[in-house]
Amino acid sequence: MVYQGSGGPPPSLARATGGSHMGNKPFGFHFYEVLPNGKRKKVSGFRINPGEKDVPFVFLDEATPEAGAAPSIRIHEFKYNGTFGNIVICNSHRSEGCVMDKALERDHTCFPGCKQPCTRIGSKESIKGGWKWVATGIKMKPFTYQKGPLAGTVLPYQRCMLMVPDKQYEMFLAYREQYASMGGLRGKVFNVRREDNQRSSKIGTLWLPAGEMTDEQMMEKFEGVAADYGLPVEQYIRPVDYQYALRELTNEEMGAAAKWVAAENNVDLNQSTSVSVATASAKTVPVDDSESDDSEVPF
Ligand SMILES: [Zn+2]
Ligand SMILES: [Zn+2]
């Protein structure tokens, strides 16, 4: 069968024909920043493992309480091509809606709010993106690559984006307010812990204030890792360019991306959702953050 659409064949077909499906991907589903050498570099999301304790994180944004001091977005996090941690910004705020909501639809799984017996069992549900407040920081705990060309290499510090889900935002807003008169969150260090539970928030469940660093201290501490990363240290200790990193896909780009995701998820984008959409739009559900947890992602 010859694939007729745009955006290349779905990964399953590319694999079957022996093609290099990695090379044929329309784009990586990640956040990126552009380095001075012109290359794009993936910016990973901050995460810690269940049960992990006292992982130091230093904020790079001032993140004062004023609106717009740090961005918020709605994102889809999903498994794609065998790996977790894929991210795409949800377009559901547009009048055209978001085709990825449909591409990621799944069978209803009961949650604590479900009426029992649940009438939704057996139905398909669209998955809306989850809201996140976004900041940039540096995770100050060494990470050792387990596989790939860098296996064995130790990364002492990790520049990353913190994506705070709605249910934890209140705590971060409190910190923003608390530190507003002290120049904001920039340079503030937190020790992060996570409950010993696979379903707990992957950005940690307890954020304990643990001191602060001046720009001079950050420059000194991160000079080496910044050089390895490919950024001048002055830029390494600044938030990522959100205009670039958090760029929304156009409807055309999203349509192409959704085809690949839908193919892998066995969703027919041209079919209306079998039960749920036909009966009530209220049956869309927000993404559960814990669903996208994954040990394959180095964060
Ligand atoms: Zn969406
Ligand atoms: Zn249910």
Task: Provide structural commentary.
This protein has 299 residues and is an alpha+beta fold. The protein has one domain. The chain is built from nine helices and 15 strands. The strands form four sheets. Strands 1, 2, 3, 4, 5, 9, 12, 13 and 14 form a nine-stranded mixed sheet that branches. A hairpin with a 5-residue loop joins strand 1 (31-34) and strand 2. It binds zinc ion (ZN) (2 copies). One zinc ion binds at residues 76, 90-92, 98, 100-101, 129.
Compounds present?
zinc ion
Shape: globular
- One letter per element, helices H and strands E, the order comes to HHEEEEEHEEEEEEEHEEHHHHHE
Total strands: 15
N-to-C span:
39 Å
**Quaternary structure annotation:** single chain
The tally of helices reads: 9
Rg, rounded, reads 20 Å
Low-confidence stretches: 1-5, 8-23, 274-299
Which structural category do the helix and sheet elements fall into? alpha+beta
Strand content: 15-25%
Domain module count: 1
DSSP helix fraction: 10-25%
**Biggest beta sheet attributes:** 9 strands, mixed
| Average pLDDT over all residues | 82
